[in-house]
Amino acid sequence: MVYKKFRYNVIVRVLLLILTIFGLVYISINSDYLITSILFSGITVLQIYSMIRYIDKTNRDLSSFLESIRYSDFSRSFQIEGMGTSFDQLRNTFNNVMLDFQKIRSEKEEHYYYLQNIIQHVEICIIAYQPDGTVEMINGAAKKLFQVSRLKNINELEAFSPELVEKLLNIHNEDARLIKVQDTDDILQLTVSGTEFVLNERNIILVTIKNIQAELEEQEMEAWQKLIRVLTHEIMNSIAPIASLTSTVNLMVDNVAAEFREKAPVGFDDEETVSDIQEALKTIHKRSTGLIHFVQTYRNLTKIPKPNFTIFPVRRLFNNIFALLRESINSQNIDCQITIEPEEMNMTADEQLIEQVIINLIKNSIHALENRENATILIKAYYNKRGRKIIQVTDNGQGIIQEVRDKIFIPFFTTKPTGSGIGLSLSKQILRLHSGTIAVYSVPEKETTFTLTFLPDLT
Fold first, then answer.
1. Please, where are the H alpha helices in 192-270?
2. CA 56, CA 69: separation in Å to the nearest integer?
3. pLDDT (tens digit, 9 = 90+) per residue, 306-333?
4. Is pTM, for the whole model, over 0.70?
5. Same domain, 424 and 347
6. Domain that includes residue 69, residue range
7. Cβ of 335: how many Cβ atoms within 10 Å?
8. Is 2 a residue whose pLDDT tops 50?
9. What's the CA gap between 229 and 245, in Å, rounded?
């Protein structure tokens, strides 16, 4: 007989068990029927087992519920039917708890994927690793910077920069460091910040890395421009009146000298003195006007026109430059080679400004190749490993020593006797206006390479 209520079912089972035990005792005392006694004993054991299993069903359901939580299996539901109101409440509570866990897990998964997408798409490099260098997480920006598809250990970056590996393995909590890396055709100024925390009894170091080369160059150029504007303004204020006054005084002296010569007595001996004064005034005027021209030349560093961006083939750019410099190149028996990969490469830039930069670099190479045997200039355009467009001018001239190499982009600095010191500085500013960079790599007496790097968003 099946009862709808759990308690009634238990009561009936207990009563039947009591009757069975009573019958077993009665038969055992008042009868010699052994088989009947064995039968009643079996029925008693069966009833006890059945009642225990029936009562343990709740424990099994509860155990199954807890195991679902333990193993994060929230897809199950609990069906306890026909066992009374209290069991209906237990069933509803179980199922509601499972639904709540499902909701919490879903929210956590959404939050996890949300953070993962943010981490993978931010431009700042992020790496999480253990103190021994074992990498637990690396985002897309870091993979792009280091040019790796995956990274198992920080020590694998040894080829990229031994200094960076050393800093990463010894970085302290909330530490921030600046590291310079020469990576083939790029110069990287990396700012590295790290923090350490404990997760699941594991020490984790979380590091962010950002290339601030562009920002540093931007600040440097702004500082130089401000300095140049102040200097040229003050110099012009001082020199312009001197040039004007010397011109006026020189005319006055000429007139006075002419009148004096007409009225001077025979045997006048101060003609040489008057000539010296006139010559001195002319010299002062000449140097004053020369200084004015000098200052106006340096003002060009602060008056570069805004780039007029157009799309043009690199081949046309190179052909125009070679046509302009063909005579100078051939006169020194220089072997000039042009390479473009791919041949149909186009650029988005101000063609005239970029042409000016490359002409300046080639002229520097021609100067460095004077009296050089097997003189060669190689002009290349290609995509680097980071997908950026690169233009390189390489020569096998005398090269640039380290002490000079660190200063060649500084305004007014030059190693040429007749140089102005603004060519490379002007080139650097033009590249900044294109959101690009210019860098130099040189091995004295072997090779010098100037590299123009254009960022993907503009090229």
1. 213-263
2. 20
3. 888 999 999 999 998 988 888 888 888 8
4. no
5. yes
6. 6-104
7. 12
8. no
9. 24
